[in-house]
Amino acid sequence: MSDPAVEIERRDGVVICHLDDGKANALTTSIISTLIDAVRAAEADDSVAAVVIHGREGKLSGGFDLSVMMGGDLAATINLVADGGELVRTFYGSGVPVVAACTGHAVAAGALMLLGCDIRVGADIDCKIGLNEVAIKMTLPDWAMTFAKERLSRRHLQRAVANARLTAATEAIDAGFLDEAVPVDQVLDVAVARAAELAALDRPAYRNTVASLRGDVLATIDAQIAGDRTATTPPV
Q1: Fold for domain 6-199?
Q2: Average pLDDT of the residues of the chain
Q3: Which of 60, 88, 220, 232 is most exposed, with the fewest beta carbons within 10 Å of its own?
Q4: 3-state secondary structure of 3
Q5: For residue 13, which phi and psi values (nearest 5 degrees)?
């Protein structure tokens, strides 16, 4: 499956997934599937050493497609959220490094995408990054809570999750959503450079280390996503 909102570019050994739907980069089932397929194809291609996920101007993603989330179709909502879990889990468990080029806003599922990436390069602009689910009367699914506990700073966990606090890029570094913030016109180039640095790592050693380092968390997330798919009420 491919989605026109995702353009795939190759720069030497780095695959770049440009995400641009012309609007908020809302995550649909089709976009999620396209991104997952791109990462899995990179894992299967010995000539690819890293993947970059790049947002459109001003935003990485505004979260899940609200037309589904608010559409009243229970099965569609459950499946979309579970698909989102599969996306973040695919990033986090990938046998090749995945780097985020966060061009601005990354809210809700957009922020969760950041938590799945090895390195997160953000734009040093006035933007909103974080998990705002509580503020919009939603509860994070269990898999998302696991990612938040795993990747966010303990000092910020309460405010970032329970208090639904959104921050700009520099504060997002301290919270754990980003690793660095650079001028907006440098985000993609820096992200590709970071991916190239990671690409120099021994591939089998990286893959095996990820499996060892993250295996327990990934197993927990797999079980949580499977549980979501059989639920009778939405996890959010």
Answers
A1: 2-enoyl-CoA Hydratase; Chain A, domain 1 (3.90.226)
A2: 95
A3: 232
A4: coil
A5: -90, 10
